[in-house]
């Protein structure tokens, strides 16, 4: 069904690239017959791919005077960007935003131009993490929602324990849909199963995928690597805090692990899966003391689903629903992730027996294809928007 309507997706991405989840939602809108434009507000001058997943990306960089101070950036985003963006992009029917700081843009679009608004609140879930944000920041995000959420027509949320996040918006009277943060199948199951069969345990590659920041727990993985025999190495894939990156590299140097460690930047999802499917074990290491573990639900942890999609057994923290699901699906181990000795023991347990390893790896990819995939979740977007 072809709609004569245009959806403008606006993403606030300090590193310059929208999240894979945003592209999947955009593809679903296109399948439903909408014309879709993707616009990325970024804080960097880096040159990124102009087309990703068959979508042309329009990049907007902040003026230099606003770029290098957090509070200057916020002022620009909250009070200047909405008018500049709407002057350049007024010919659309629906505005889709993915960041709480874009709610003023949604408000002006609604009040002045009568546009319909869809808000994917996944980023507020992330930004509510006290390990990455101070109390002032969290209060500001909550204030923005309190002021502007009433002007949003539809809210998408990630899964959360006992539907905490969905109830947050339902109580505000918002039309709300829970969308699991899962991947497309991509018809790679046969290829992944073949890679699992070909893996051997002579040399073991551990991988961490995700944000690089103080709450990520990467230092604990490095400490476990120091305990493990030389056949084990660690690959970290992601972007984030440069100061924390330096801390990681200093720790690697101090431990003499330079030959057993690699740091790789952001990769598109297809390249990421291709890359990590050559490795052996995925580790979810975020510190429970700095994360909203009480709210995390089965369908929230993209990191775990990424590992599973690549056919990797998973080591996960024992504190939340995600880890319980890893254990239930039989595709990994849940441990006290803040103890390097526990990480090392889990790694050895997963890699000391090839038959045991391959059984867990196979269950990972099987769970993605049977339960946790976008082909199931995208039907929740087939609502009248």
SSE blueprint and pairings:
Elements: E1 6-12, H1 20-31, E2 35-42, E3 51-52, E4 55-61, H2 64-67, H3 70-88, E5 94-97, H4 103-113, E6 116-120, H5 122-127, H6 135-148, E7 154-157, H7 164-170, E8 175-178, H8 189-198, E9 204-209, H9 218-227, E10 232-237, H10 242-255, E11 261-264, H11 269-276, E12 281-283, H12 302-309, E13 314-317, H13 321-329, E14 332-335, H14 340-351, H15 354-370, H16 374-377
Parallel strand pairs: 1-2, 1-5, 2-4, 5-6, 6-7, 7-8, 9-10, 9-12, 10-11, 12-13, 13-14
Antiparallel strand pairs: 3-4
Helix pairs in contact: 3-4, 8-15, 9-10, 9-14, 12-15
Report on this structure.
The chain is α/β, with parallel strands linked by helices. It has 2 domains: 6-179, Glycogen Phosphorylase B (Rossmann fold); 189-370, 3-Layer(aba) Sandwich (Rossmann fold), CATH 3.40.50. The chain is 43% helix and 18% strand. The strands form 2 sheets. It has an 8-stranded mixed β-sheet with strand order 3-4-2-1-5-6-7-8, with helices on both faces. Strands 11-10-9-12-13-14 form a 6-stranded parallel β-sheet, sandwiched between helices. α9 (218-227) links the parallel β9 (204-209) and β10. α9 packs parallel to α10. The longest helix has 19 residues, at 70-88. The radius of gyration is 21 Å and the shape is globular. It starts with 5 loop residues before the first strand and ends in an 8-residue tail after the last helix. The mean pLDDT is 87.
């Amino acid at each position: 069904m072809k709609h004569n309507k245009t959806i403008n997706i606006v993403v606030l991405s300090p590193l310059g690239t929208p999240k894979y989840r945003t592209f999947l939602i955009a593809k679903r809108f296109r399948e439903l017959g909408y014309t879709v434009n993707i616009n990325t507000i970024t804080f960097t001058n880096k040159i990124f791919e102009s087309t990703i997943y068959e979508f042309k990306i329009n990049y907007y960089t902040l003026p230099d005077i606003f770029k290098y101070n957090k509070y200057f950036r916020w002022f620009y985003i909250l009070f200047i960007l909405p008018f500049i963006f709407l002057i350049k992009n007024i010919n659309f029917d629906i505005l889709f935003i993915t960041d709480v700081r874009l709610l003023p843009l949604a408000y002006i679009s609604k009040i002045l131009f009568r546009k319909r608004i869809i808000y994917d609140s996944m980023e507020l879930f992330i930004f509510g993490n006290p390990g990455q944000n101070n109390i002032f920041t969290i209060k500001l995000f909550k204030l923005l929602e309190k002021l502007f959420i009433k002007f949003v027509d539809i809210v998408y949320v990630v899964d959360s324990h006992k539907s905490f996040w969905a109830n947050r918006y339902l109580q505000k009277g918002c039309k709300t849909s829970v969308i699991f943060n899962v991947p497309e199948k991509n018809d790679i199951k046969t290829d992944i199963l073949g890679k699992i069969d070909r893996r051997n345990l002579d040399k073991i590659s551990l991988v961490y995928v995700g944000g690089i920041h103080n709450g990520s727990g990467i230092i604990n993985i490095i400490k476990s690597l120091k305990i493990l025999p030389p056949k084990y190495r660690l690959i970290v894939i992601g972007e984030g805090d440069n100061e924390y990156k330096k801390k990681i590299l200093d720790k690697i140097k101090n431990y003499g692990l330079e030959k057993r460690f690699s740091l790789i930047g952001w990769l598109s999802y297809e390249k990421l899966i291709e890359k990590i499917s050559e490795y052996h074990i995925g580790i979810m290491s975020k510190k429970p003391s700095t994360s909203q573990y009480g709210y995390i639900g089965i369908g929230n942890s993209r990191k775990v689903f990424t590992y599973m999609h690549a056919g990797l057994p998973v080591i996960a923290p024992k504190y939340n629903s995600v880890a319980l699901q890893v254990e239930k699906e039989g595709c990994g181990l849940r441990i006290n992730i803040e103890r390097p000795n526990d990480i090392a023991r889990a790694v050895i347990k997963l890699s000391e027996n090839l038959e045991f390893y391959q059984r867990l790896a196979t269950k990972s990819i099987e769970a993605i294809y049977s339960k946790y995939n976008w082909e199931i979740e995208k039907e929740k977007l087939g609502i009248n928007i």
